[in-house]
């Protein structure tokens, strides 16, 4: 591995850690490695509701740097019912954690992406955009995704989700927080009503040419439809 490559250590839910992680963390610290510490507070779980889950998230973020000497912290608040990071409540937790930590420190924060819908679906791309918007406007430096279809199925991710993650982030960079929040509220409303019927999507080899590694025409059209919706909501990035 290169000296710049990060080594991962994971905390447990909630505000716990096992002996193995402590040993690994100590090894990384003593050998001078780049360390990424991960923790995903669960909204609706042991941590409770919005406010208490946010407090837990802030605490685990700070603990990454104090106990494990993290180079950067990878967050990922997840909804206990849906198992995703793109639910309204999970986004709120992620946004408040980041704003709180970024206002009072210069540490590096990231966030993980787990959508409910699968690749080659408009819903998946809108979920991705919602989280990228939240992360960017709340000050996170690193976006880590996208694990589509809840990240539990083989081959259910493509580069088009990552493209949306990046472009949505660029779309809101520098915008007013309150203006973005209005757009975000409308954006989440476009897909949260469909949680119980979220489209499964397609595997990578079904929506990409595996030889040329280019998206199919269908996948491109799905992306363009998501862009149209985001543009109608008030993001001007794609009009340039």
Keywords, please?
240 residues, alpha/beta, TIM Barrel, two-stranded parallel sheet, 15% strand, globular
Mean pLDDT: 96
- Name of the level-1 CATH class: Alpha Beta
Largest sheet report: 5 strands, parallel
- Globular, elongated, flat, extended or rod-shaped: what is the shape? globular
Uncertain residue ranges: none
- Reported by name, the CATH topology is TIM Barrel
Arrangement of strands in the largest sheet: 1-2-4-6-7
Distance between the termini: 40 Å
Which structural class matches the secondary elements? alpha/beta
Strand elements, count: 9
CATH architectural group: Alpha-Beta Barrel
Assigned CATH superfamily: Monomethylamine methyltransferase MtmB
| DSSP strand content | 5-15%
The helix count comes to: 8
Q: Kindly give the count of domains.
A: 1
Helix content: 40-55%
Would you write up a description of this structure?
Helices cover 46% and strands 15% of the residues. The longest helix is centred in the N-terminal third of the chain and has 18 residues, at 50-67. It is an alpha/beta fold and 240 residues long. The strands form 3 sheets. It has a 5-stranded parallel sheet with strand order 1-2-4-6-7. Helix 1 links the parallel strand 1 and strand 2. It has a single domain, classed as TIM Barrel (Alpha-Beta Barrel), CATH 3.20.20.
Strand and helix map with partners:
Elements: E1 6-10, H1 19-30, E2 34-38, E3 42-43, H2 50-67, E4 72-75, E5 78-79, H3 88-103, E6 108-114, H4 122-137, E7 142-147, H5 159-172, H6 177-191, H7 204-207, E8 208-209, E9 214-215, H8 217-232
Parallel strand pairs: 1-2, 2-4, 3-5, 4-6, 6-7
Antiparallel strand pairs: 8-9
Helix pairs in contact: 2-3, 3-4, 4-5, 4-6, 4-8
């Amino acid at each position: 591995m290169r000296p710049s490559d990060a080594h991962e250590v994971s905390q447990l839910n909630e505000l716990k850690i096992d002996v193995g992680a402590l040993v690994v963390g100590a090894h990384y610290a003593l050998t001078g490695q780049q360390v990424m510490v991960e923790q995903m507070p669960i909204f609706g779980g042991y941590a409770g509701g919005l406010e208490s889950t946010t407090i837990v998230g802030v605490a685990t973020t700070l603990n990454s740097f104090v106990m494990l000497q993290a180079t950067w912290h990878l967050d990922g608040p997840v909804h206990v019912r849906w198992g995703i990071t793109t639910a309204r409540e999970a986004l709120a937790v992620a946004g408040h954690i980041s704003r709180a930590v970024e206002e009072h420190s210069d540490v590096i924060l990231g966030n993980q992406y787990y959508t409910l819908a699968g690749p080659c679906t408009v819903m998946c791309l809108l979920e991705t955009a919602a989280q990228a918007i939240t992360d960017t406007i709340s000050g996170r430096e690193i976006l880590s995704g996208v694990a589509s279809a809840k990240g539990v199925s083989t081959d259910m991710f493509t580069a088009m989700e990552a493209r949306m993650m990046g472009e949505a982030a660029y779309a809101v960079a520098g915008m007013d927080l309150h203006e973005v929040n209005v757009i975000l509220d409308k954006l989440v409303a476009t897909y949260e009503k469909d949680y119980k019927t979220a489209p499964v999507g397609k595997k990578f080899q079904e929506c990409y040419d595996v030889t040329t590694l280019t998206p199919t025409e269908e996948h491109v059209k799905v992306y363009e439809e998501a862009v149209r919706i985001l543009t109608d909501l008030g993001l001007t990035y794609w009009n340039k």
